[in-house]
Amino acid sequence: MSEYFQHVLIGLFAVLPVANPLTSIPLLISLGGDLPPAERNRQIFKASLYVALIMLVSFYGGNLMMQVFGISIPGLRIAGGLIVTHIGFAMLFPTNVPNETSMQHNLLSDEGKITSGFRDLSFVPLALPCTAGPGTIALIVSSASTLKSTYGIIPLSIHLAVITVTFLTALIVWVALRSSGSIMKFLGESGIDAISRVVGFLLVGMGVQFAINGGVELMSTFQ
Question: Metal-binding among the record's keywords (predicted)?
Answer without folding.
Answer: no
